[in-house]
Design brief:
The complex is a heterodimer of chains A (94) and B (372). With 94 residues, chain A is α+β, with helices and mostly antiparallel strands. Chain A is built from two helices and five strands, in the order E-E-E-E-E-H-H. The chains are: A alpha+beta (94), B alpha/beta (372).
Chain lengths: 94, 372
């Protein structure tokens, strides 16, 4: 139920006094309510749950998280118990 | 897809797993609150990549699973009324009531419609002025802003044929209930990232202090989950019961104030019954008196319902992390996703359905964990 999907805001407009917009989910475009992201701009990434944007995705925080994960990965090398089987499992999901 | 595929990188996942394997020195029991996280853990097989010392138990964060049987029976009674269009998120249609479900009463001519967003239900009300449209407003804090906005929107549009059957639940009181139980085994929590996107995580700080458990705000992609688990294991090993945020690209301590304002405008805290668990004080939201005319329970007379749960179903103990789905004698035999005895076998986020789908029918022998 709490499934929420990231997407890119491609258009912002108003219907019946509500801020609405078109959000692109990697090629699939759907309408969403943008009332809860009052600072949203076209081009921002947001998280959509049951047709509502719950927040904007912070590019800065995303970059810092990925930098930290890269640092952790560079520290320890490969753990012998986490082998190629799990690699293929993840790769198949991408 | 940006902000999705980066968090499925196998190399970075190996790095986190290696760090977890290096850090852990003893057994720990960690609960992921959210059913969406349970599903992702099973889907990506994360439980089988972790050290055998980590036991993941699955929390009550599946709204379809915990919506009380009484409310499901009321939904069935409302949907059966002539002149009513009953609208619901799709997950609820196959949840068993006392005998029937919304799917089966739709087959016998009730007008039950699945909506993607509660604003779609408002739209159906505008398009059908001669019908009464009822929306089954279930969900945790994540879904409350959408459900609340539908009421606000119907109010400002002056719609008199829209109402909601509300069954809202909140995470922090459920954590209190789990941690104060004498049977509690949970030593650390992965807090639900999308609940926290809305509400922030300040509410978890007193819980971490009171019960001396670390709480880590965690997202839903494989790297998000592994990072949440990694931070939790570090805090447990260091003996630190604090709240940390492993999902900062979406979650702040304060959460989304605009969403909280609309929730607080429409809803007020109330006691709530959780299916399989029972009454948890202060764990729900109901409509404020100013919006009580949108309450479907007040608008329609509903005959007294007599909820009767399947005697075989032990979902309540599963939702509290006391037992695992495969400990249930009915699991995969009398109870399957096609013929569920309880709600946890219905929703994809229900622990029983996730175990069934991904074949966690027996415990993985510990000597095989992580060996590929």
């Amino acid at each position: 139920m709490c499934l929420a999907v990231p997407g890119k805001i491609v258009e912002i407009y108003h219907i019946d006094g509500l801020a609405m917009g078109k959000v692109d989910f990697g090629g699939v475009v759907r309408e969403a309510c943008l009332e809860y992201v009052p600072n949203a701009k076209v081009g921002d990434y947001t998280l959509i749950h049951v047709g509502f944007a719950l927040n904007l995705i912070s590019e800065q925080e995303a970059m810092e998280t990925l930098a930290m994960l890269n640092e952790i990965a560079s520290l320890g090398g490969e753990d012998p118990s986490a082998d190629h089987n799990s690699r293929s499992r993840f790769a198949s999901e991408i | 897809m940006k902000h999705l595929s980066e968090y499925r990188d196998p190399g970075l996942a190996m790095g986190l797993l290696a760090d977890i394997h290096r850090t852990i020195t003893r057994p720990w029991v960690v609960m992921e609150i959210c059913g969406g996280q349970t599903y992702a853990i099973m889907r990506y097989g994360l439980d089988q990549l972790l050290p055998p010392e980590i036991e993941l138990v699955h929390g009550p964060g599946c709204p379809v699973c915990v919506t009380s049987l009484e409310l499901v029976d009321k939904a069935l009674a409302l949907a059966s009324k002539p002149g009513v269009i009953f609208t619901s998120y799709g997950d609820m249609l196959r949840v068993p009531g006392s005998g029937r479900d919304l799917f089966s009463i739709r087959a016998s001519s009730a007008d039950v419609r699945v909506v993607y967003s509660p604003l779609d239900a408002v739209q159906i009300a505008r398009q059908n002025p001669d019908k009464q449209v009822v929306f089954f407003a279930i969900g945790f804090e994540t879904t409350a802003p959408a459900n609340a906005m539908s009421v606000l929107s119907a109010h400002s549009l002056g719609l008199e044929n829209y109402s909601v059957l509300v069954s809202h639940v909140r995470v922090p009181p459920a954590m209190h209930a789990i941690l104060s139980s004498p049977r509690n085994r949970v030593q650390g929590f992965l807090a639900a990232g999308h609940v926290c996107t809305v509400m922030g995580y300040w509410e978890y700080e007193p819980i971490a202090r009171q019960y001396k458990v670390p709480v880590v705000v965690t997202g839903f992609e494989p790297l998000d989950l592994l990072q949440g688990i990694q931070k939790t294991i570090h805090l447990l090993e260091e003996g630190r019961a604090t709240v940390e945020n492993a999902y900062p690209r979406l979650v702040t301590r304060e959460g989304n104030r605009a969403a909280q304002n609309v929730i607080n405008k429409i809803f007020i805290e109330c006691d709530q019954k959780w299916r399989g668990i029972g009454l948890i004080p202060g764990s729900g939201w109901r409509l404020r008196s100013e919006y009580a005319h949108f309450d479907a329970e007040k608008r329609f007379s509903i005959d007294q319902v007599k909820p009767e749960e399947s005697p075989e179903c032990i979902a309540g103990q599963i939702l509290q992390g006391i037992i695992k789905p495969h400990d249930c004698p009915g699991f995969g035999i009398q109870c399957t996703p096609e013929h569920p005895l309880g709600a946890t076998m219905v929703s994809s986020e229900g622990a029983c359905a996730a175990y069934y789908r991904y074949s966690r029918k027996t415990l993985v022998p510990t000597d095989q964990v992580g060996s590929g």
